[in-house]
Write a structure and sequence with these properties.
alpha+beta, five-stranded mixed β-barrel, about 20% helix, about 170 residues, about 45% strand, 2 helices, two-stranded antiparallel ribbon
Length: about 170
């Protein structure tokens, strides 16, 4: 087998690997549930280049308890880990001491809200115009596919103001 044939075979194997990953992601998108999730952006420390936002998920909670006397520097809520499940069409952080995700919990309008510590990057085109929701009173929401395991996979973004979701055209 010549060097050219070996190179072509290697290239074909690499293309086949990428195609199987793409097929799996497309299959998941077609068969797995999807939902809109409120997200908060933060500045990541990832070594990748390009224009992207990184989100942490802000979800309603289920099963967390308030600790009357937490240890110094500890969360007043127990446990601090969770799994993600759909509850009545809403993605919810369900308490589980051995759960897949770490959470930070806080009270917002007398409701317990979990900020799930995941790094969910969303890559955007170089010249896309991204609104700054805090300045306009809007919230950022992400439509995502919910895989069997692991963090949600982002599909598209939207802003929400006065209860109305408006998808962003980032093309």
């Amino acid at each position: 087998m010549s060097a050219l044939q070996k190179g072509l075979l290697l290239a074909a194997l690499q293309v086949a690997l990428v195609c199987t990953l793409a097929a799996k992601l497309l299959y998941d998108r077609a068969t797995r549930p999807r939902t809109w999730i409120q997200v908060a952006t933060y500045d990541p420390t990832l070594p990748i280049r390009g224009r992207y936002l990184v989100f942490s998920l802000q979800l309603p909670t289920e099963g967390f308890t308030w600790l009357e006397n937490p240890q110094k520097y500890a969360s007043p809520f127990s446990p601090s880990r969770c799994d993600l499940f759909m509850r009545n069409g809403v993605l919810t952080a369900v308490a589980n001491p051995e759960g897949e995700f770490w959470v930070n919990l806080r009270l917002v309008d007398n409701k317990l809200v979990a900020t799930v510590n995941t790094q969910t990057p969303f890559f955007i085109p170089e010249h896309a115009n991204i609104p700054m929701p805090r300045a306009t009173g809007e919230e950022i929401w992400m439509e995502a596919t919910l895989p069997g395991k692991g963090p949600p996979r982002p599909i598209r973004l939207a802003t929400r103001k006065n209860g109305v979701l408006t998808p962003l055209a980032l093309d």
